[in-house]
Inverse folding.
C-alpha cells in the first residue's frame, strides 16, 4: 500500500528550486522600483556639489509644511525712509532682499550720504542706496564691540557703546568718544519699528525658502527619512530583500549549474 | 625587570601617541584677524586701504569665486610689495574666514582664522596650508600648482584655493590706479 511516488525524493529539490525561482522573480519586480529610486538618488548625492544641490533650496510651501518648517517671526526692524531693515533669526534683510552673510543681531540702521549704515553689536554694514553691500566692517577694522545703537547728528554718525557715545569716522576708521553732556549736535538714535506687513510676509517666505536644500531632500529620500520612521523601516526591509535576492540568485545559479 | 619596564614605557608612549596626538593636532587654535595681522606685521600693523570691485575687476572676481562676491570693496593691509588680506568664502553653507599674506606676488602664508562648518575643518592644518606657500598666479588667475585635496573636505579645499587666487589677483591690482569716478564713493559721511 505504499502510494508514495518513488521519485518524490528526487523531485523535492527541483520543487524547492522552482519555488525559490518564483519567489526570486516576484521579489525582483518589487525591488526594481526601489533599486531605481536608490540608484538615482545615490547618483545625485554623489554628484551633489557639482549639481549645486546644496546651494538650491525648496520653496514649495507644501514641501516645507511636510517637513514642519515654519519661518520664525521677525526679531526687529528699523525704518530707513523709503526702505526698511529687519533681522530674522540669523539674517538681515533690506526690504525683502537678504544681505549676504550671517548676522546674529541688528542694533540700528541709519541713512548716510552714500546709502545706509546698519549696525550689529560688533559690525557696521555699509550699503549703497540700491542695497548692495559695500563692505562689512568688523573688529579687525577697529569697530567697537557691544554697540547698542547707531544714530545721526547733523554732520556725524554716532555709535552707542555702553554709556559712551562715539563719533564714527568711516573714512579714517576712527571711533572718538564724545561728551554725553555736551554733544556736538543733537543725535537722532535709530529706534526699532514694526516691519510693514507686506515686507514681513515676503521676508518670512524668503527665509523659510532657504531652510530646506535639495541636497537634504534627496538624502532623506535615499535613506527613507522623507517618510519618517516608517520610511526608514521600509528601506531596512528593502535592504534585507536585496540581501535575500543576492543570496537566492547565487543559490539558484549554482543549483542550475549542478 | 628592566625589559618589562621598557616594554611598559613603550606601550604607554604608544597609547599616548594614539590618544593625545590627534587631539593636539586637532586643537590648532584659531586666531582672530587682529592677532593674525599683528603677527604678520610684527606688531606694527599698517593702516588699511581698500580696493573697489567694479567693472572688469568684478567680473574677474566672480570668475575666481564662481559666484557674485557679495561686496563691492575689499580691505587690505600693507602695500603692493607685501599685503595681508582677511577674506570670507562659503565652504558648503557657512563662511570660512581666511587670512592670506601675499609677498612679491607669491603667497607667503595662508591661514584659517574661523571655520564654522561641521565638516572640512582639516584645511586649517599646516600640512595642508603649506602647499600654498610660494604659490603664484599664472594666466587666467590659475595657481601655478595643483593643490592636493582632503577627502571629505572638497568644498573647503575649493574655498581656500579660490581665496588664495583672489588674494593674488587683488594684490596685483593694488598698484593699479582706481577709477576716478569711484573716489567720491570712497568718502563716507
Amino acid at each position: 500500500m505504499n502510494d508514495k511516488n518513488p521519485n518524490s525524493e528526487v523531485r523535492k529539490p527541483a520543487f524547492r528550486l522552482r519555488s525559490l525561482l518564483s519567489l526570486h522573480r516576484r521579489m525582483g519586480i518589487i525591488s526594481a522600483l526601489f533599486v531605481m529610486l536608490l540608484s538615482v538618488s545615490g547618483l545625485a548625492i554623489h554628484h551633489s556639489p557639482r549639481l549645486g544641490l546644496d546651494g538650491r533650496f525648496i520653496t514649495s510651501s507644501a514641501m516645507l509644511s511636510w517637513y514642519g518648517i515654519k519661518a520664525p517671526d521677525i526679531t526687529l526692524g528699523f525704518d530707513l525712509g523709503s526702505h526698511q531693515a529687519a533681522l530674522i533669526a540669523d539674517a538681515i534683510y533690506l526690504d525683502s532682499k537678504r544681505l549676504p552673510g550671517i548676522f546674529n543681531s541688528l542694533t540700528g540702521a541709519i541713512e548716510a550720504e552714500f546709502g545706509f549704515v546698519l549696525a550689529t553689536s560688533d559690525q557696521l554694514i555699509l550699503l549703497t542706496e540700491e542695497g548692495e553691500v559695500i563692505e562689512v566692517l568688523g573688529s579687525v577694522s577697529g569697530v567697537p564691540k557691544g554697540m547698542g545703537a547707531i544714530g545721526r547728528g547733523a554732520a556725524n554718525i554716532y555709535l552707542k557703546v555702553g554709556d559712551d557715545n562715539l563719533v564714527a569716522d568711516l573714512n579714517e576708521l576712527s571711533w572718538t568718544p564724545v561728551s554725553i553732556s555736551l554733544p556736538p549736535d543733537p543725535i537722532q538714535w535709530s529706534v526699532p519699528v514694526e516691519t510693514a506687513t507686506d515686507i514681513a510676509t515676503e521676508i518670512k517666505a524668503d527665509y523659510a525658502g532657504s531652510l530646506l536644500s535639495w541636497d537634504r531632500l534627496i538624502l532623506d529620500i535615499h535613506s527613507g527619512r522623507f517618510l519618517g520612521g516608517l520610511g526608514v523601516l521600509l528601506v531596512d526591509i528593502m535592504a534585507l530583500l536585496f540581501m535575500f535576492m543576492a543570496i537566492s540568485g547565487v543559490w539558484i545559479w549554482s543549483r542550475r549549474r549542478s | 625587570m628592566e625589559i618589562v619596564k621598557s616594554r611598559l614605557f613603550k606601550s604607554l608612549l604608544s597609547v599616548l601617541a594614539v590618544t593625545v596626538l590627534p587631539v593636539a593636532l586637532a586643537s590648532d587654535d584659531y586666531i582672530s584677524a587682529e592677532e593674525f595681522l599683528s603677527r604678520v606685521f610684527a606688531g606694527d600693523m599698517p593702516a588699511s586701504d581698500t580696493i573697489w570691485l567694479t567693472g572688469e575687476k568684478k567680473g574677474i572676481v566672480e570668475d575666481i569665486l564662481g559666484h557674485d562676491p557679495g561686496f563691492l570693496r575689499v580691505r587690505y593691509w600693507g602695500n603692493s610689495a607685501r599685503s595681508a588680506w582677511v577674506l570670507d568664502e562659503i565652504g558648503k553653507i557657512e563662511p570660512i574666514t581666511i587670512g592670506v599674506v601675499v609677498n612679491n606676488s607669491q603667497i607667503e602664508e595662508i591661514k584659517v582664522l574661523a571655520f564654522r562648518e561641521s565638516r572640512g575643518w582639516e584645511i586649517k592644518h599646516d600640512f595642508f596650508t603649506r602647499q600654498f606657500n610660494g604659490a603664484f598666479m599664472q594666466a587666467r588667475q590659475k595657481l601655478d600648482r595643483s593643490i592636493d585635496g582632503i577627502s571629505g573636505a572638497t568644498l573647503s579645499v575649493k574655498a581656500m584655493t579660490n581665496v588664495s587666487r583672489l588674494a593674488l589677483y587683488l594684490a596685483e591690482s593694488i598698484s593699479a590706479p582706481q577709477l576716478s569716478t569711484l573716489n567720491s564713493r570712497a568718502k563716507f559721511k
User: Anything to note?
Assistant: Residues 18-27, 178-189 of chain B have pLDDT under 50 and may be disordered.
